[in-house]
Design brief:
The structure is a homodimer. The first copy, chain A, contains 8 helices and 2 strands, in the order ααααββαααα. By secondary structure, chain A is mainly α. Chain A has a single domain, classed as Arc Repressor Mutant, subunit A. The first copy, chain A, has a two-stranded antiparallel sheet with strand order 1-2. Chains A and B meet through α1, α2 and α6 of A and α1, α2 and α6 of B. Chain A binds a DNA duplex through α3 and α4.
Amino acid sequence: MSISLEIFGDRWSLLVVRDMMVRGLATFKDFQESGEDIATNILADRLERLTDAGIVTRESEVSDRRRVNYRLTEKGMDLAPVLLELLIWGARHEATGAPCAVIDQMEQNRAAVLDETRRRWEVRDRTPILPRFDEAARPRNATGRARRSH
Amino acid sequence: MSISLEIFGDRWSLLVVRDMMVRGLATFKDFQESGEDIATNILADRLERLTDAGIVTRESEVSDRRRVNYRLTEKGMDLAPVLLELLIWGARHEATGAPCAVIDQMEQNRAAVLDETRRRWEVRDRTPILPRFDEAARPRNATGRARRSH
DNA sequence: TGCGGTTACTTGCGATATGCAAGTGATCGT
DNA sequence: ACGATCACTTGCATATCGCAAGTAACCGCA
């Protein structure tokens, strides 16, 4: 597991994987615009490392050769249980803006959530499983913008 | 979950938690001697952050006041499922030295493993659940020592 | 009561990684 | 042919890491 942490031992790698898995992000631009505020050089570096580690693959689109699509590999998809547990933990302990009902339901149907996630991956269905609850764009606080301190 | 990664988004934090949970490490010295090769300043920093985050508590021993015991909180223990899944993932994909049989068995008895882990925590039983499979001290390679490159 | 050893840390400092802003080159639509 | 788009680089300031050495509180023992 120490080896795993040499891959994921930073703030961005797992986040990138999660965003691919549950939010359907696939291109460099997707990540830039995702609201995660990741610097472009870091993003490039993390995508490279993840491909080197065999967790994602790079496939450039035939219809538009500027475009590169990143896709999780089998190995990457096998991280789904880890991410699910981390999501549940975060929701329970860290005040992510995720509605309790949604989390409770995921917690009681772990297997179903994982199955559905995998099914979408197999079919290349990129519609997000989860929206962005956390950090910004919360429903019930007035400003919604300009929260930068942490 | 991005919030979780602000806590665990580094190479050591999760490792410290894991070592407390499954190897029964509790003191500063335990970690220094654990073979993880973590620098003392980093260790001090991570232990402080983890206590600040409410994941471990610091309790100085009454019989020997030099000694400080770190212990996982409830919140820290709730990371057990995450760590278990990460362990399983690593064993499957990253050639840790863990025997397949052990992993298979854990995978099929997730709930039992988690129950046992929690029981030991409640009873303050610190005998390790898992030894160190990974990295050093592998049984079947001749040298065993002097492996520093990565 | 003094003294060496133990425990849990700091401190200093060079090396590495991060984050921002700006730039580059290939490709596309018109 | 030209401006826009996409996927990155590059330069540079700042933050974090990691090693080695040092320190302060405390313990056991003479």
